[in-house]
Amino acid sequence: MDAALLTPEEMGAADRATIAAGTPGILLMERAAAAVAAAAMRLSGDGPIALLAGPGNNGGDAYAAAALLKSAGRAVRLFHLVAKEGLAGDAAIAAGAYDGPAETLSSFRPGDFALVVDGLFGAGLARPLEGEAAAAVDRANAAPVKVLAIDLPSGISGATGAVLGTAVKADATVTFFRRKPGHLLEPGRSYCGEITVADIGISDDVLDTIAPTTFEAGPALFQGRLKVPADAGHKYDRGHAVVFSGPAHQTGAARLAATAALRGGAGLVTVFAPASAVLVVAAQLTAVMLRRCDDAAELRERLADDRLNVFVLGPGFGAGDKARDFAQAVLGAGRRLVLDADGITAFKDEPQALFAAAGEAARGRPGGEPALVLTPHAGEFKRLFPDLAAEDGLSKLDLARRAAARAGAVVVLKGRDTVIAAPDGRAAINASGTAWLATAGTGDVLAGIVAAQLAQGTPSFEAAAAGVWMHGKAAEAFGPGLIAEDLPQMLPKVFAGLCG
Ligand SMILES: NC(=O)C1=CN([C@@H]2O[C@H](COP(=O)(O)OP(=O)(O)OC[C@H]3O[C@@H](n4cnc5c(N)ncnc54)[C@H](OP(=O)(O)O)[C@@H]3O)[C@@H](O)[C@H]2O)[C@@H](O)CC1
Ligand SMILES: Nc1ncnc2c1ncn2[C@@H]1O[C@H](COP(=O)(O)OP(=O)(O)O)[C@@H](O)[C@H]1O
Ligand SMILES: [K+]
Asked: Which atom of ligand 2 is nearest to the CA of 439?
């Protein structure tokens, strides 16, 4: 459960369960404030600190942190949206215990401070910021002052990462117990700065009843499910992945995916190419094997070899009838399929046919495990799920979850904040990677890395989450200037970090 991300509602439930088990809420607030005060000391040097306090418990944290900073001898000034008398519960207790002056938010001038601590709104943000709160946030953002956000930058939805009205651009954020989806989803992630998760004494046991369904994609989520070579293993134990190549003038994408599948850990990888492309592909492959495969009839013959357990279709393939026929043949044979790029576009006029084939294939698999992994970027997603993409107010998490349920597939909705969702409602958000991934062909590499995890027998959701995370880690390991070809070569470093 280390990978769990909690929605504001789930965090509220964790809070209530902890209080019901005997820890007073004010104690949780004091521990939260201690973590905030420690971060504030670190960020402010010796300079003066402004604390902005909102009307709820986020404001209570600000009052409690102000008290700690003041008693540590720091110059602090507190600015409130609502006077002390207007506060309730733990926030009122914390405000009562603060013996310094409190000024109105309208008198807050960020230029007077080395650090602003934002305690306006956290988990309880319920509507767009406006009026005095919005004006104070805009003033802080316009000034060259460091900002530390308590729990979430005010204005960022913890559930979706959306900006409601306006939002604090923080240099650092201290949150409590577990991160929230809004810390990892854009634009929220870009507003958080460096995120610290403070232990405030909430026990992990509360997660047993909360049963979170959203996770960060990372080793804590998939490590137990990821397959690594057994000591006395055979290459066939690690699966045989097939990547379909497009026509002679369009083979690069398939080669990228195939190399990535091999480096990603598949025991064997074969490119299936049309006769016209075989010589072109052959000239550029070594460990990756090659076979001719011209049409669906030939593919069905090849599918008789049940060691071919995973297929990648889409990169450079062409988005016509052939793509649809091949995808249906693979799913019809009960094999797992990573459908990317042209393979996704090919179904834009009849997505239902794809979803029906995916559903049928999943029903034939142990536990109804999804056979299909879809890896769309936002444009491809819109082609398959136009109604979802057009619906207002859906977060990237909502989009991927609804698409996965409809398609009976694991959906990997790509971008800086790639979301991986399964039909059973689980979802993961990835935070690895760099902006250098925004370059041609990196999506083809991702399809290959995901296929490699599937080939080795990792369950589809974990395989997709692991593949996305590794892809990002490979980009981090290479650093600036990467092109798609550089990613597969970095995978040994990623495995070294994972497997020791
Ligand atoms: N969970 C835990 O374990 C712990 C939680 N802790 C802390 O508690 C925080 C959550 O506290 P919270 O629930 O009181 O919510 P919070 O973010 O202060 O805001 C709610 C208030 O804002 C108001 N309001 C909302 N939107 C508004 C807007 N746009 N413009 C104006 N007003 C608006 C809303 O008013 P209403 O909607 O009722 O009219 C209500 O009065 C959490 O982020 C963390 O910092 C810690 O102490 C440690 C333990
Ligand atoms: N700014 C970014 N930060 C991190 N990752 C990114 C960014 N932009 C794109 N990516 C990642 O790069 C890959 C691009 O895939 P895709 O759009 O399919 O490109 P292509 O079709 O050229 O291969 C995806 O894995 C995506 O998540
Ligand atoms: K805040």
From this structure: 22
30 Cβ inside 6 Å of ligand 1: no
Residue at a domain's end among 211, 246, 264: 211
Supply the pTM of this predicted model: 0.97
Mutation choice for ligand 1 from 7, 19, 105, 125, CB with most ligand atoms inside 8 A = 125
Nearest alpha carbon, ligand 2 atom 18: 443
Tokens of 64: 């409690």
CATH number of the structural domain spanning residue 32: 3.40.50.10260
| Span 100-115, average pLDDT | 96
pLDDT above 90 for 230 = no
Q: CA 340, 246, 457 angle in degrees (round to 5)? A: 45
Complex ipTM more than 0.90, yes or no: yes
Cα 150 to averaged position of ligand 3 atoms, centre (Å): 4
Residues with CB under 6 A from ligand 2: 341, 377, 414-416, 418, 433, 435, 437-438, 440-444, 446, 471
Token pair for 190: 């870009």
In terms of domains, do 223 and 200 share one? Answer: no
Instruction: Please count the other Cβ atoms lying within 10 Å of the Cβ belonging to residue 438.
Output: 10
Q: Which of 16, 58, 127 is the best mutation target for the ligand 1 pocket, counting ligand atoms within 8 Å of the beta carbon and taking the most?
A: 58
Query: If you average pLDDT over residues 62-82, what whole number do you get?
Result: 98
To the nearest 10°, report the CA torsion of 124, 130, 135, 137. 30
Q: CB of 400 closer than 6 A to ligand 1?
A: no
Taking the C-alpha atoms of residue 76 and residue 86, their distance in angstroms, rounded to an integer, is: 22
In this predicted structure, the answer to whether residue 224 has a pLDDT above a threshold of 90 is no
Verify that 186 and 314 share a domain, yes or no: no
CATH number of the domain where residue 477 is located = 3.40.1190.20
Paired tokens of 357: 């084939």
Q: Are residues 203 and 231 in the same domain?
A: no
pLDDT at 236 over 90: no
What tens digit of pLDDT does each residue of 266-317 get? 999 999 999 999 999 989 889 999 999 999 999 999 999 999 999 999 999 9
Q: Which residues surround ligand 3, an ion (CB under 5 A)?
A: 118, 122, 149-150, 154
Average pLDDT over residues 118-126: 96
User: Which atom, in ligand 1's list, is nearest to the CA of 64?
Assistant: 47
Share of the chain above pLDDT 90, in %: 95
Q: Do residues 204 and 228 share a domain?
A: no
Query: Is 285:356 a contact under the CB 8 Å cutoff?
Result: no
Q: What is the mean pLDDT of residues 34-61?
A: 97
What is the position in ligand 1's atom list of the atom closest to the CA of 126? 26
Number of domains within the chain:
2
Same domain, 299 and 152: no
Range of the domain at 266: 219-499
Beta carbons of 361 and 372 less than 8 angstroms apart: yes
Q: Atom 1, ligand 2: which residue's CA is nearest?
A: 435
**Burial of 417: CB neighbours in 10 Å, binned 0-12, 13-18, 19+:** buried
